[in-house]
Amino acid sequence: MSVVRSDPVGWLVDHQSYINQWYRCCHHSPPDARCHRYVFRAEYFDVEKPHIAEPGTPSQGSTASDRGLKGRKRKRKERELNQGEVEALEYHEKVSLAIQDGARKLVEHMEAQGTGREGGSGQELAVVLADSMLIELCSMAKHLSEETQQQVQVITDESEAVLELLGRLTENSTDRARLVRLMGHHYLLPPRCSFLLSDISRVQLLLGYKKYDVITLDPPWENKSVKRSKGYSHLFPWQIRQLPVPLLSSPGCLVVCWVTNRQKHLHFVKEELYPSWSVHVVAEWHWVKVTRHGDFVVPLDSIHKKPYEILVLGRYMGSSAQQGGEDVITGNVTVPDRKLIVSVPCRLHSHKPPLGEVLKGLTGPHPECLELFARNLQPGWTSWGNEVLRFQHLSYFQQLCPEQGEQSCCDSQTHQPFDPSLPQQPFVEQ
Question: Which of 306, 349, 387, 421 is the most buried (most CB within 10 A)?
Answer without folding.
Answer: 306
